[in-house]
Amino acid sequence: MTTFTNRRLTVSSTLILLLTGSLVLAFIFPYVYLIMTSLKPSTEVISSNPTLLPSVFTFDNYRTMFDVLPIGKYFGNSFFTAIFSTLISVFLGSLAAYGLSRFSSRLGNMFLLLTLAVRMVPMISVAVPMYRIINQLGLYDTKLALTLIYTSINIPFVIWLMIGFFDGLPKELDESARVDGCSKFGAFIKIILPISLPGLATTAIFSYLMSWNDFLMALMMTSTSAKTMPVGLSEFLGAYNLDLGPMTAAAVCFSFPVVLISFLIQRFIVSGMTMGAVKE
Questions:
Q1: Which residues pair with 237 in a beta bridge?
Q2: How many domains does the chain have?
Q3: H-type helices in the chain, by residue range?
Q4: Is residue 280 part of a domain?
Q5: Smallest Cα–Cα separation from 230: which of 83, 66, 82, 33?
Q6: Which of 37, 117, 123, 146 has the fewest CB atoms within 10 Å, counting from its CB?
């Protein structure tokens, strides 16, 4: 009986491993194909009989992409707007979430419901009003405009996610900090934020991804000076030309920072996704 049970467990574990491996390969394959395509000669990129591995590995596409478009400028704009909007939205959203968690009231609950309602509104429905506001303020085609827009979009998400983490922290921590002479803001900065590092890391990476990958707002709010990488990538596809080689090279460079950051802080992301899931 024991042998039969162990055999069933072995078969089940093998099936789960095969299924998991198949799903991982299905998700990874497009990215591997993108990397391999960026290393192909230009003739093989547009070949009618595509292959996974290039016949000759070359970095010509990576050199060409800088000649075709100002990739460095687009990359810098994306990095600037994503980093600063993430920092501002995580700090302000965490502060608001802490206040809603520790000092709940009827007005605070109404504000939380309003915040969640704003988060559910599709971005396309507020794109035109935001464009008119930014244009009237004279901020069109500036990095400041994109930073403000991404911050306003990310703050409701940060509040919604961080309030779960703060609710899971005992209020005795705040009281102990107050006894030691800290103000409410001091307790938040010195005690609560360090403890909430996994939640902050999770929230920050998702906020960063939203700002980094945005196409719609960047397309509407920029023309030349503040254009970001997602909009810049679309310029490789013209009416009379199709530069797939440089485009894949630029796409690899654009995705690499996100992949690197995800690997570096994956420990915080995993723990952060489960930290606020259960309340004691």
A1: 242
A2: 2
A3: 2-38, 42-45, 60-68, 71-102, 106-120, 123-136, 143-167, 172-179, 184-187, 193-195, 197-213, 216-221, 229-234, 244-264, 266-275
A4: no
A5: 82
A6: 117
Question: 73 and 189: one domain?
Answer: yes
Cβ-contact 243, 63 below 8 angstroms: no
pLDDT digits (tens, 9 = 90+) for 253-280: 998 888 887 777 766 665 555 554 444 4
| Shared-domain flag, residues 178 and 246 | yes
Residue-wise pLDDT tens digits, 190-227: 888 888 887 888 888 889 989 999 999 999 999 889 99
Q: Where in the sequence is the domain holding 230, given as residue range(s)?
A: 68-275
Please state whether the predicted TM-score (pTM) of the whole model is above 0.85. no
Contact 76, 227 (CB under 8 A): no
- Cβ-Cβ contacts under 8 Å for 61 (sequence gap 6 or more): 38, 39, 40, 42, 45, 245, 246, 248, 249
What whole-number distance in Å separates Cα of residue 177 and Cα of residue 195? Answer: 13
Total residue length of the chain? 280
CA distances to 27, 65, 148, 208 from 83, rounded to whole Å, are: 27, 24, 12, 7
Asked if residue 139 lies in contact with residue 217, where contact means CB atoms within 8 angstroms, the answer is no
